[in-house]
Amino acid sequence: ENYPTDITDFEQHVRELTNRYKQVAKTLREGIDTAGDAGDEDTADLLTEVSRTVDKDAWFIGANAPKK
């Protein structure tokens, strides 16, 4: 799904970014499982490290959003 370029509300941008980061994190976790099932622990380890960073970034984006 394309990023909605017509939004102007800051909070909506934060929600959109957070949701996209969460989707990337989900896809990474699926890749970790697939690599592990294939016996490719090196790739699983690399994806795990990236997943940690993406999860952290998603949290930072969401946690620093203005509260209503």
Explain what this protein looks like in three dimensions.
The chain is built from 2 helices and no strands. By secondary structure, it is mainly alpha-helical. α1 runs antiparallel to α2.
Oligomerization status of the protein chains: single chain
What is the strand content? under 5%
Which structural class should the secondary elements be placed in? mainly alpha
- What's the total helix number? 2
pLDDT averaged over residues: 92
Biggest sheet layout: none
Number of strands: 0
Q: Report the uncertain regions.
A: none
The separation of the N and C termini measures 27 Å
Computed CA radius of gyration, to the nearest angstrom: 15 Å
Order of helix and strand elements from N to C terminus: HH
- Helix fraction by DSSP (H/I, runs of at least 4): over 70%
Shape, please?
elongated
Which SSEs are present, and which pair or pack?
Elements: H1 10-37, H2 41-63
What features would you highlight for this structure?
68 residues; elongated; mainly alpha; single chain
Short overview:
The chain has two helices and no strands. The protein is an all-alpha fold and 68 residues long. The longest helix has 28 residues, at 10-37.
